[in-house]
Amino acid sequence: MDQTYRGSCLCGNVAFQLEGSFAKFYLCHCSRCRKTSGSAHCANLFAPGAKLTWLKGEKEVSFYHLPDTRFARSFCKTCGSMMPTDVNSGQLVVVPAGCLDSEVALKPQAHICCDSRANWDDGFEDVVCFSDMPS
């Protein structure tokens, strides 16, 4: 069943709407995703055939494609927040989960590219959790 989701960047210059449904939700640990996220992995939702509409700031979205690969990213030129990427003209929209303002019922289905996982990316269940920034 198709739904409508909304999202935006950190600075608020870019906002979008996605009409469709998410088929997959993966946490990717490849070195490329780690570099673009600055973290252990990227959390990406995949929406085949979804309609992506830029509500504001489409000209503020920059697109980067790593030559000779299928790797690509869209991001806000001002704040660097990753934004959805429309792959193959509407055949697939890849949405970084963190840019969504709407809730998503789908939970991550798999960790992928685990052979590329960072050596420090293990045992997080044992790390202390704080509800806010620690003092």
UniProtKB/TrEMBL annotation:
Q: Which residues form the CENP-V/GFA domain?
A: 5-121
Q: Which domain of life is it from?
A: Bacteria
The GO molecular function terms of this record are: carbon-sulfur lyase activity; metal ion binding
Q: Where is the signal peptide?
A: none
By its UniProt entry, which Pfam families does this protein fall under?
Answer: GFA
Q: Which UniProt keywords apply?
A: Lyase, Metal-binding, Zinc
Kindly give the PROSITE patterns that the UniProt entry links to this protein.
CENP_V_GFA
InterPro entries assigned? CENP-V/GFA (IPR006913), Mss4-like_sf (IPR011057)
Similarity section:
Belongs to the Gfa family.
This protein is called: Uncharacterized conserved protein
